Amino acid sequence: MVIRKFHEMGVRSEHAYMAAFASIGLSIASWAGSLKLEPGTGLARADRWGIFVGQWAPTFFGLGLALSHYEQHDGTLVVDTREVRREAA
To answer: From what superkingdom does this record's organism come (predicted)?
Structure first.
């Protein structure tokens, strides 16, 4: 199974979530960068760059969810709800 292999390699759900949020930021940066660095190509090319990179985020979020589900069943989930409740009290 792919998710198990990722987990064995040390990839955790938090890593996938961080990659998803980073890809959102990178999408905005690539769109803005394309507008500034390639002024003659127009808005359409910048939009294509932004959309291309922006499509990575749902994949990373899905991977994060799958890893989180695996971690819950594997018993290696980093944050336990009991720990959160103790810290809040």
So the answer is: Bacteria
CA distances from 53 to 20, 65, 68, 71, 76 (A): 10, 20, 24, 28, 31
Token couple for 19:
């990659």
Q: How many CA atoms lie within 13 A of 4 on its CB side?
A: 3
Per-residue pLDDT tens over the stretch 14-23:
999 999 999 9
What's the pTM? 0.72
SS3 for 42? coil
Residue 71: which region, alpha, beta or left (left: phi > 0; alpha: psi -120 to 50)?
alpha
- The residue type of 49 is W
Given the structure tokens 């792919």, which residue do they identify? 2
Q: What residue type is assigned to position 14 of the chain? A: E
